[in-house]
Design a protein that fits this description.
The complex is a heterodimer. Chain A is of the alpha+beta class. Chain A has 10 helices and 7 strands. Chain A is about 65% helix and about 15% strand. In chain A, the strands form 2 sheets. A 5-stranded mixed β-sheet of chain A has the order 2-4-5-7-6, covered by helices on one side. A two-stranded antiparallel sheet of chain A has the order 1-3. In chain A, a hairpin with a 2-residue loop joins strand 4 and strand 5. Chain B folds into 2 domains: about 130 residues, 3-Layer(aba) Sandwich (Rossmann fold), CATH 3.40.50.2300; about 100 residues, OB fold (Dihydrolipoamide Acetyltransferase, E2P) (Beta Barrel). Chain B is elongated. Chain B starts with a strand and ends with a helix. The model of chain B has no long low-confidence stretch (mean pLDDT about 90). Classes of the chains: A alpha+beta, B alpha/beta. Chains A and B meet through helix 6 and helix 8 of A and helix 1 of B.
């Protein structure tokens, strides 16, 4: 449906403009075939109104043949102009015949033929003008839509960041940390103080990192270490951490708060759900131009997938999608009682911000 | 009393705070639900401090498996869980929110002692704590001294036997003290269908439905077992299978 038909007011305005064009057309007819104003208007007004709607067909042709298709679209428009003008001229011929028979209007047979020839000649450029206007309107619409899409993706990127932050500062973690501190106060006041420092560090780092677009892997790992320090107090010997971090990766630029949620996920769904705990394995290495980060944890083979499994993973996926990088991906695999989340990123980080080549 | 929590600092805190009370003797400390069921059954404490979130067997499941008469008073401990809090309120169960100090602990202790003997139905409490629309994912069963935690996807068929349900799982059968209707309500209705007054079937384990006579059918399970189907059970089954 042509957008003009969407609102009655627009349609009425367009019809009025077409009728005004009819007055010009009547003047043109009087030049081609001298006749009284009344006779010329009787033919020109309905003819102009009719053509006003005829040229709207350019909208469909414009959409079918966008300008990007080059010469083909110009050929298509020219053909459409000839067809539209031809059909219009034929319709007006019928009207002119009727007017001549019924009311005796018109400049006689030769005059009418000259009129119809003029109409066809006028019709072609008018149609082409309509096509140009439609192309302009469609282009404006497309740029508007692109703008809206850009805005939407910006909003969703912001939204994903906020979610990541909120997940980071997940209430469960905060309450449990407070409880660990609470427990240490009596038996180990020095330990309680250390724990306060660690929690403070973790919160500060989370807020600082979340505000940046890219951080060095060593910064992200420092955040992960603070987090693990705190969880270590909670889980005691159930939590063991194995780090396999290639020193050549430390300067790589990575989006912040991607690794930490994976570690949190490993603790929440892996270690916290197993009786004896186990080793959480943290890997970082380069593979060609790619940075590969992996977090692996034991899972209970007999256990069902717990609800909420993958909330952390889902957040990381959304963040990657919001970052709009096709080069980054997250892969998870569950085999032989181990769960492994692998994150692959370009080693030079977002925007090629530059990192030391290993 | 007995302290149950999988996090060492949380146990240390309760030990420290309760140790100062001359009227309190701690008879056991447990790091998980399995130890808790064993210790509580052996020691018969007056009161249990029970952490909600623990691996494999959570606080609600521990309560379910105790089957002690008289039941010990229970104070649940949790850090943050909206559904559990609502369940505690609805079922008038005592709880402590972490972190807590001496005063809150003393209040909870006093309330729990006063309320002893009015224990809520553990299975109803657990269902409320899971929250609406979250079906049961595993069934905890006690068999003498053994505890089995069966993920629901491994269950083939559930059969009512007087006050018990018999849970058939890969050739084994476990008995649990629970009404069939209550278990039915807790399970995911898209996976488990009440095909008969006495049977709930896991739809994934149904091989076919056989017509014996007009309006008389049996369900044949994957393992060949034949189970009667009532007319309304057959309609429910057809609704789920589409």
């Amino acid at each position: 449906m042509h957008p003009l038909f969407a609102r009655a007011s627009r349609l009425a305005f367009y019809a009025a403009a077409s009728l005004a064009g009819g007055v010009l057309l009547a003047a043109a007819l009087r030049l081609v075939a001298p006749q009284p104003w009344l006779a010329a208007l009787a033919l020109a007004l309905p003819a102009s109104l009719l053509y006003g709607f005829d040229v709207l067909s350019a909208w469909w042709v414009c959409r079918a043949y966008p300008l990007a298709r080059g010469p083909r679209s110009i050929v298509a428009q020219l053909a459409a102009a000839l067809v539209a003008s031809g059909l219009w001229t034929a319709a007006v011929a019928v009207l002119a015949g009727a007017l001549a028979r019924v009311a005796g209007f018109g400049p006689g047979q030769t005059g009418t033929l000259r009129e119809l020839g003029a109409l066809f000649v006028i019709g072609v450029p008018v149609y082409l003008f309509s096509a140009v206007v439609h192309y302009l309107l469609l282009a404006a619409e497309a740029s508007h839509a692109a703008e809206r899409r850009a805005l939407e993706s910006q909003v969703s990127a912001r939204d994903a960041e906020l979610r990541a932050l909120r997940a980071q500062l997940n209430p469960h973690f905060l309450f449990n940390s407070l409880n660990s501190i609470n427990a240490l106060v009596g038996a180990d006041p020095e330990g309680a103080r250390r724990m306060c420092e660690r929690l403070g560090d973790f919160l500060r780092r989370t807020l600082a990192l979340g505000a940046r677009e890219a951080v060095s892997l060593s910064d992200e790992l420092a955040l992960v270490d603070r987090y693990l320090d705190i969880e270590q107090v909670r889980f005691g010997e159930r939590l063991r951490v194995e780090r396999h971090v290639d020193p050549g990766t430390l300067e790589c630029r990575v989006p912040p708060l991607l690794l930490q949620p994976l570690v949190e996920n490993a603790i929440k769904h892996g270690l916290a759900e197993s009786l004896d705990g186990g080793a959480l394995r943290l890997e970082a290495r380069r593979e060609g131009g790619r940075l590969v980060l992996a977090v692996e944890n034991p899972v209970d083979a007999g256990g069902a997938a717990r609800p909420g499994e993958g909330v952390g993973l889902e957040i990381v996926r959304r963040r990657l999608a919001a970052l709009g990088s096709d080069l980054a991906r997250l892969e998870v695999r569950r085999t032989d009682g181990r769960f492994r989340a692998t994150l692959e990123l370009p080693a030079d980080g977002p925007g090629g911000a530059g990192g030391a080549r290993g | 009393m007995v302290i149950v929590d999988d996090e060492p600092p949380a146990r240390a805190l309760l030990r420290e705070l309760l140790g100062a009370d001359p009227g309190v003797t701690i008879v056991g400390e447990c790091a998980n639900g399995f130890e808790a069921v064993r210790t509580i059954t052996e020691q018969r404490p007056d009161l249990v401090f029970l952490d909600v979130q623990m691996p494999k067997l959570d606080g609600f499941e521990v309560l379910e498996l105790l089957e002690l008469d008289p039941a010990p008073a229970v104070v649940f401990c949790t850090a943050y869980d909206e559904h559990a809090l609502r369940a505690f309120e609805v079922h008038a169960v005592d709880y402590l929110l972490k972190p807590f100090g001496r005063e809150r602990l003393a209040e909870a202790l006093a309330r729990a002692r006063a309320r002893r003997g009015e224990a809520a139905r553990p299975t109803a409490l657990a269902a409320a704590a899971r929250g609406p629309g979250r079906p049961l994912e595993r069934i905890a069963i006690r068999d003498g001294t053994q505890i089995h935690v069966i993920p629901v996807e491994r269950v083939d068929l559930i059969e009512a036997q007087d006050d018990y349900v018999a849970i058939h799982e890969g050739g084994k059968t476990h008995l649990k003290h629970q009404p069939l209707a209550e278990l039915e309500a807790a399970l995911d209705p898209a996976r488990f269908v009440r095909i008969h007054r006495s049977f709930i079937a896991n739809v994934e384990r149904i091989a076919r439905v056989e017509l014996l006579a007009k309006d008389s059918r049996v369900v044949v399970m994957r393992d060949g077992r034949q189970v009667p189907v009532s007319r309304s059970g057959h309609e429910r089954l057809r609704a789920v299978l589409g």
